[in-house]
Design a protein that fits this description.
By secondary structure, the chain is of the alpha/beta class. The chain is built from twelve helices and eight strands. α6 packs parallel to α7. The longest helix is centred in the last third of the chain and has 20 residues. Sulfopyruvate binds next to α3.
């Protein structure tokens, strides 16, 4: 049984709508994603690596990312799209990965066709090696066979454009992954404009809806993505960690400059707001009921 969520990603996509999914790197950022009104939480490998002070190059283990995602699932009701990178190994490892992430409360996984250990996608000149199409088909088939709930989405991500292999190979890979049973295809690009992605989507002849992560090409607004008709999920890939860094930097700089916190309070949320996010009201309620 999949974790019960306030929204159903498969339903949103099946209705031809586009789900907006925002990145999170810990349960608190996941709570803020939910309160902001997004349709889902992106348990991003990049964000979690960054939160650990590490590069997104397969350094964090499956157990660490999984535990973090489980804690997000325990504290929120939105569906979670789990970024499982390459699936943490070969098709055999994928069987276990899917079992674990579904049991921990994910509503979907994104698994990418890069070679393990992977290199983060948006880095200039990154080493981007892909596994063969048959090997990745085996991983997608393993993922599909391991899921228990048919609503659990298996999203196959091709890094063909990121690896500079061109649109023809990207389309070939996407078709092969759909044939292997993927519910959706994530196509990633690091081009500074949406042209490459729009061309891929316009030439996509499969039935699987498309997932995009428009970090590198912010001109791709939600309205523009919806106009393409085939985009089922739009993921904001790293805006929680970037927003957090921006916010913390501003506050820390102000305190250093002022030699104290006298001017900072007006700029940041009060402690009572953190109490609210921590559900201190429930603690107070429980104290009244149970502490004698
Ligand atoms: C992530 O957020 O971990 C992603 C998206 O996979 S990207 O970092 O752009 O590859
Ligand atoms: Mg990732």
């Amino acid at each position: 049984m999949m974790r019960k969520t306030s929204k159903n990603l498969r339903e949103i996509v099946a209705k031809g709508e586009m789900a907006r999914v925002m990145a999170a790197h810990d349960p608190l950022s996941a709570i803020l994603v939910e309160e902001a009104g997004f349709d889902g939480i992106w348990a991003s490998g990049f964000e979690y690596s960054a939160a650990m002070g590490l590069a997104d190059v397969s350094l964090v283990s499956m157990a660490e990312h999984l535990t973090n995602m489980r804690h997000m699932a325990e504290r929120t009701s939105l569906p979670i799209v789990a970024d499982v990178d390459t699936g943490y190994g070969n098709a055999i490892n994928v069987l276990y990965t899917i079992e674990q992430y579904e049991a921990a409360g994910a509503a979907a996984v994104v698994i990418e066709d890069k070679m393990f250990p992977k290199v983060t996608s948006l880095i200039e000149g990154g080493r981007q090696e892909l596994v063969s199409i048959p090997e990745f088909q085996g991983k997608v088939e393993a993922a599909v066979s391991a899921r228990k709930d048919s609503d659990f989405l298996i999203i196959a991500r091709t890094e063909a454009l990121i690896a500079g292999r061109g649109e023809t190979e990207a389309l070939e890979r996407a078709r092969a992954y759909e044939a292997a049973g993927a519910d959706m295809i994530l196509i990633h690009s690091k081009q500074k404009t949406p042209d490459e992605i729009e061309s891929f989507i316009n030439n996509w002849d499969g039935n699987a809806p498309i997932v995009i992560v428009p970090t590198a090409y912010p001109q791709m607004t939600e309205a523009r993505a919806k106009a393409l008709k085939k985009v089922g999920i739009l993921i904001y890939g790293n805006h929680a960690v970037r927003g957090a860094v921006t916010g913390m930097r501003q506050v820390f700089a102000q305190i250093i400059k002022d030699g104290g916190i006298q001017n900072t309070d007006a700029e940041i949320v009060p402690v009572s707001e953190i109490f609210r996010l921590q559900r201190m009201d429930q603690v107070t309620e429980s104290e009244k009921r149970f502490l004698r």
